[in-house]
Amino acid sequence: MAITLAACGQSSNVKTLKQDELNAMATEKNVVVIDVRTPSEIQEGFIPQATAFVDYTSASFQTEVQKLDTSKTYVIYCRSGGRSAKAASFMDSHGFSKVYNLEGGINNYSGTLKQ
User: Fold this and answer.
1) Which CATH class name applies to 2-108?
2) Alpha carbon of 23 to those of 76, 94, 110, 113: distances in Å?
3) Residue 8 known to be catalytic
4) pLDDT per residue over 60-91, tens digit each?
């Protein structure tokens, strides 16, 4: 069964992070919050804890992700959770062991966005 899941691109190592857990986790050392939306989406506002912006739809996504430190903890988000789930799964399959997908993406974020 694990082989089937891996072949489908899903991973048991990627965890879902609930919105209310984001603030506490984002203040921890070694945690990086990554927005994987497009530049035009980011211009509409982003979660203040985001410190990295890597467009999941860009041709350079895989190259940019592979430059990141695999020993850090990453929280990934997009608009609703679909692209970030795929990005988190990619990271997990490329040596990142601490990856979280923010549940519901920025659509479920209740805080004030940064411009």
Assistant:
1) alpha beta
2) 14, 26, 11, 13
3) no
4) 999 999 999 999 999 999 999 999 999 999 99
